[in-house]
Amino acid sequence: KDIQYIYSNYYNKLEIFRFDSNVGKYVGYTAYGVKNAERFNSNPSEIARRKAQRETYCQHNIGVYYRTA
Fold it and tell me: Which parts of the sequence belong to the MHC class II beta chain N-terminal domain (predicted)?
């Protein structure tokens, strides 16, 4: 089963940056977001934490989602 974990950060309804488990890193969508994405991507523990959240959150709840879909 393919599962994608996305963590997005918004300000004033505008997406600033996002972590996408399929990409494996943060991507910035504004000047401020690009700066933060670069900072987060340079920290291996931050990337490992987000990748682990895919397993912790998505894998743990996938059975519930498939039963109710």
Answer: 1-66
Q: How many CA atoms lie within 13 A of 28 on its CB side?
A: 12
Q: Are 3 and 62 in contact (CB under 8 A)?
A: yes
Query: Global pTM?
Result: 0.82
Q: How far apart are CA 41 and CA 36, in angstroms?
A: 8
DSSP one-letter code for 56: I
Asked whether the beta carbons of 24 and 51 are under 8 A apart, the reply is: yes
6-68, what's its fold? 3.10.320
Nearest to 20 by CA among 9, 4, 33, 35: 4
| Domain spans in the chain, listed from the N-terminal domain onward | 6-68
